[in-house]
Design goal:
This protein has helices at about 1-15, 20-25, 30-60, 60-80, 85-95, 100-105. By secondary structure, the protein is mostly helical. Helix 2 (about 20-25) packs across helix 3 (about 30-60). The longest helix is centred in the middle third of the chain and has 30 residues, at about 30-60. The radius of gyration is 21 Å and the shape is flat. The model has no long low-confidence stretch (mean pLDDT about 75).
Length: about 110
Amino acid sequence: MVFKTEINRLRGCFEKLFPDYKKTIQTNVILKRFFGLFSIDILTKASGFILLPIYLKLMTQEQFGMFGYVLSLISNIAMVLNLGLYVAQSKLFHDYQERKKNNLLSL
């Protein structure tokens, strides 16, 4: 219950600072997409924090340490193997004409 009152209080402060923020977000496509992506990123990062008690309940300390080690190893290997190709692919996608985009997506 305390959590809800804090959220409502923060929401009230935010609405006082930015009275027409809902209208701006609804009409501005860029802001709408930004908040959509930003909320997904927050949800992804928060899921690790939310699932932490479940991991701790189901695993021993040694297993959780091994899980963290393997997770960091996988993320480092993925970062090296990625080589920034997703950036090049997005640039290539936006350089193509509209009729060629459909063929590029099917690859």
